Amino acid sequence: NGMSHSSGGFSMSCRVRRESIEPRDMFHGMILTMDTYACALKNAARMISDGYFARNLQQRYISYKSGFGQLLDKGTTNFDECEEYSRKKGEPQPQSGRYEHFENMFNYYIYPAQKAITNAPYHARM
């Protein structure tokens, strides 16, 4: 039974699972959970502070900032207007969603480049 709240929060999920039945296993599970949350928070802060991901995301959806895209985004159009717009514009030209670019960019924040530490103990490399 983890620590959870009806209005949000997160679960530390300290419960017996698999063969991990000793208290020390749960202790290490809690440490891993806290480390994971801390790492995620640091990555999110870096992602927000450098602005690169946000700029790329904004560029990807720039067509929703004006014209017909803005009407769609705000929900102020209907099917008849969509049909009329489609008939006027004709077949759209496909554009790349750049999925791989975004995936690589996201992975950069999750798995940042680290200095090679070859002689350090395992826990010091993390």
TrEMBL record:
<dbReference type="GO" id="GO:0046872">
    <property type="term" value="F:metal ion binding"/>
</dbReference>
<keyword id="KW-0119">Carbohydrate metabolism</keyword>
<keyword id="KW-0413">Isomerase</keyword>
<dbReference type="GO" id="GO:0009045">
    <property type="term" value="F:xylose isomerase activity"/>
</dbReference>
<dbReference type="GO" id="GO:0042732">
    <property type="term" value="P:D-xylose metabolic process"/>
</dbReference>
<keyword id="KW-0859">Xylose metabolism</keyword>
<comment type="similarity">
    <text>Belongs to the xylose isomerase family.</text>
</comment>
<dbReference type="InterPro" id="IPR001998">
    <property type="entry name" value="Xylose_isomerase"/>
</dbReference>
<protein>
    <recommendedName>
        <fullName>xylose isomerase</fullName>
        <ecNumber>5.3.1.5</ecNumber>
    </recommendedName>
</protein>
<dbReference type="InterPro" id="IPR036237">
    <property type="entry name" value="Xyl_isomerase-like_sf"/>
</dbReference>
<keyword id="KW-0479">Metal-binding</keyword>
